[in-house]
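Q: Start with the shorter request: fold the first protein.
A: Done. Sequence, then structure:
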Amino acid sequence: MHFLLSGLQIVMIDLLLAGDNALVIALAVRGLPARERRIGIACGAGGAVALRVALTAIAARLLDIPFLKLAGGLFVLWIAIKVLIDASSHDDDGPAPGRLWQAIRYIVVADITMSVDNILAIAGASRGSFWLILFGLALSIPFVVFSSHLLSSLMDRWPVLIYLGAGLLGQVGGEMILTDPWLVSVWNPGELARHAVEAGLALAIIAIGRWLAVQHRRNLI
C-alpha cells in the first residue's frame, strides 16, 4: 500500500512539475521542421531524464552549490531571448544546419538546471526506493513529450504564445537566480521583492527579445 501511494504521489508530482520543462522544449524546437521537431523533443527529453537519474543521488547537494542556480537562471533567460530572435527569422531563412542538435543541447542543459527541485520531490516521495525513483523519472518523459508537442503546435497556430512563453521563462529564470545560495546570502529578498523582480524580468525578456528580433530582421533586409 505504501508503495502504491508513493507511486500515486510521484504521478501527481510529474503532472504538476512538467509544465516549465515542456515550455523550454516547445520553444527550443519550434523552428524545426515537423520530423526534426519530433526527434528533438524525444532526444532532448530522453537525454535530460537519463541525466536526472544519474543526478538523483546528489540532487540535495546541488541546491547548496553557490552560483549553480544563478548560472542556470541566466541560461534560461538567454534561451528565452534567443527563441524570440529565432521566431522572427526561421520562417524566412528556412531550417539552419545543426539547429536540431542545438535545440537538443538547449533542452538537456535547461532541463537539468531547472529540474533539481523536481528530482528532490520525486526522491522524497519515493522514500528511498530506487525503482520508484526510476519510475517517476521515466514517467516524466511521456508527460513532457506530450505537453511539448501540444505547446509547439499551439505556438504554430498562435505565434503570440511565443512571447507569453518567453515571458514565463523569464519568470522561471528569475526565480532560479533569486534562490541561488550565494544571492540569498548577499540579499535574501522578501516575497514581494522576489515577485516584483520575476515580473520585471518576464516583461524585460519580452521587450528585449522583441527589440532584438526587429534589429535582426532589419539586418536581413
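Q: Next, the second protein, separately.
A: Sequence, then structure:
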Amino acid sequence: MSAIVSSPHRAAAAAAGLFLLALGITYGRVLVRLAEDWATDPNYSHGFLVLPLVAYLVWERRALLARAERRPAWFGLAVVAFGLIMLAGGTLGAELFTARVSLIVVLAGTVLFVLGPAHARILVFPLAFLILMIPLPAIVFNRIAFPLQIFASQFGEQVLQMVGVPVLREGNVITLSTTSLEVAEACSGIRSLATLITLGLVYGYFMEPRLWARVVIVAMTIPIAIVTNGLRVAGTGVAAYHFGPEAAEGFFHTFSGWMVFVLAFGMVCMVSMMLQYVGRSPAGDEGEGGRAVPARATR
C-alpha cells in the first residue's frame, strides 16, 4: 500500500527532476553569465539574494498551492514557446536581457501548462520578483545613471553652498578650493537605488499586510535613495574641503557609502512605521482582550 501511495510522489519528483535538468541544459550558459554579472558588477550584487528569497516565497505558499485546483492550461505551451523564441532571439542577437527574461516567461508558462491558472496566480509575486535579479540593458542603465549623476552633483552643490563651502560645478564635476570631485557613474546612486528597491519590496512584503502600503514603501525607496546619495556627495565635499582630498577616497569614501545606505534603509523603516497609523481605526480591529488583530492579506 505504501508503495502504491508513494508512486505518484515519485513520479512527480522524477518529472520535476527532468524539468530542472532540461532547464539547466537550456539556460546553463545564461545562468552562468548572470552569476558572473552578480559577482563582478556591484550594481547587481543583490542578485545573489533574489533566488533564496524567491525559494522562500514559494515555500511559504505551499499550503495554498496544495489546496489550489489543478487544471492544466494548454495555452501555457504557447507561453513556453514564446519564452524559447525570446531565448533564441536574445542569444542570436547577443541581447542578454531578452535571453534572461525568457527564463521567467518559460517558468510562468510551465506553471500554467502543468498546474493551471490558480497556481499561476499564487506564484505571480515570486515569479515577478525574479526580474530584480536581471541587469538592465546598457542603454536603459545609462539613461537612468546619467541623470542621477547630474542630480547628485546639483544637490551636492546646493548643500555645499548652504553650509558656506565655496564651490563651482561643471556638469558632474564639483570644484572646491582644495580639490575637484567627479560624481562618477558609481556615485550616481543607481547601485543603492536598485538594492534599496529590492529591500523595500522584501520589507514591505513581510512587515506590511496592506497592498497599498507596500506600494507606498517601495515607491518611497526611489526618492529616499536619490536624496541620501545627494547628501553623500555633499558630505564628501565638506570632508574634502576641511580635511583634504584623502577624505574623498579609499576607506572613508567606501565607509560613507555604507553609512548612507544604512540611513536610507532606516528612512524606509520610518516610512513603514508612519504608515502603521494611516487607515487604521483607533479603536477598531481588536480581538479579545483589546489586543489589535492585524489585517490578513492574500499573498
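Q: Describe the second briefly.
A: DSSP finds eleven helices and three strands in the chain. Residues 2-135 form one domain.
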